[in-house]
Each structure stands twice: as C-alpha cells, then as structure tokens.
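thread: overnight batch results

M.L. [08:02]
morning all. the overnight job finished for the chain we discussed friday. pasting input first so we're all looking at the same thing
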Amino acid sequence: MTNKDKKAFAVLMAAMHEVFTPDRDLPNERQKARAQIYFSTLKDLPIQAVEKAAEQVIKTRKAKYPPFPTPGEIREMVFGDKDEIEAEAIQAWERAYHLDRKMYEMERGYIEEKNLTEEELVIVKTINLEFGGWGK
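M.L. [08:03]
and the structure it wrote out:
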C-alpha cells in the first residue's frame, strides 16, 4: 500500500470496526490510532490484497478474542496459513524427490516412461525444455 491508499484503507477499517467492535462508542482518537497501527503493519501489502483479506475475515471469522481482527489475521488471509503452506511445500519436495528417483531409474532402464503419471510427464517435459534435462 502507499499513502494514496489511506482513504480506501480507512473505509476498510471502518467496515471492520462496524462488524467486529461490540463497543461502538470507541472514541474517534482510538479509532484513528488503531487505523494508523494497522496501516503501518500492513503497508507492505497492496491495498487490493488487504481489501480482499478484510472481506474474507468479515465473511469467515467467528467470534474470537480480541473481537477486532489482528493485523496477523489479515496477513494470514493474504498469504495463507503458515502451517498449511509449509505442509504443501514439504509435499512438493517429496513429489520432486520421488520423480527424481523415477528419472534415475528410467535413465538406467529399470522403468519405462509409461510408468510415469500424466503430471510427472508434464514436469519432466518442462524440466527438459527449461533446463535441458535432469542433469547428470
């Protein structure tokens, strides 16, 4: 976000305040202070990503403490759950390792190309195209 996004961001904060703040009589100074804190912790993100994340928070968040979503929750909506992303990365590495083993076996004649899945064939063709092969 940039300073030109402050107005759109203020609208976003007001919307979340309406949805999540049970004490609607929060003094204006506190609302402004909260908006400034949130802006400074989220300013590395594009306003469109923050808007989409805020919409998701409003749509999916169940009652929690604190009642107002934290900047961390908004960031999680932008980037996804860290544990889930890490699990997906581990699975991708495992798939790459197993495919590397299959390529090793195929190069030595232990298995044939027909033993590869459609997804594996696409990956092999992409690696051959982009890198000239699997390396020796």
